[in-house]
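Data deposition worksheet. Section B asks for the primary sequence of the deposited chain exactly as it was used as input, without tags or linkers unless they were present during the calculation. Section C holds the resulting structure in token form. Section D is free text for depositor observations; keep each observation to a single sentence. Incomplete worksheets are returned to the depositor.
Section A, Depositor: J.P.
Section B:
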Amino acid sequence: MDLMRMSERDYWAEVAKRPAMFLGRTTLTGLEGYLFGYDAHAHRHGGLGLDGWTDWLVARMGRECNHGWNGKVRHLALGDKWESWELPADQEQQVIKVLFDLLDEFLAEREMKGTRTR
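Section C:
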């Protein structure tokens, strides 16, 4: 497994399989922080990072909200069950799963469009 040569979609599939290998302890806030850092690093080095991710999530939701992408993911994962940023363990695991699923769908669509570099 050569993480440096694989596509973004393949990279995130590997992270989804073994999040603790990349994050240490697997928590939603840790994963969100990792994604924020990934995005910032990609932009610093000429990559796309998560460009288009927030707009894509808004389209999936069918409406805008006042939250950043991490709140939008919670809305998509939990709907009306989302009441607080502090989630019970079962809801946190559900959001993590949905986050990886949404990210894979987003990256698959971006790959199909042929958008790979800035």
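Section D:
Residues 89-112 form the longest helix (24 residues).
The helical segments are 8-17, 19-23, 28-44, 53-61, 69-78, 89-112.
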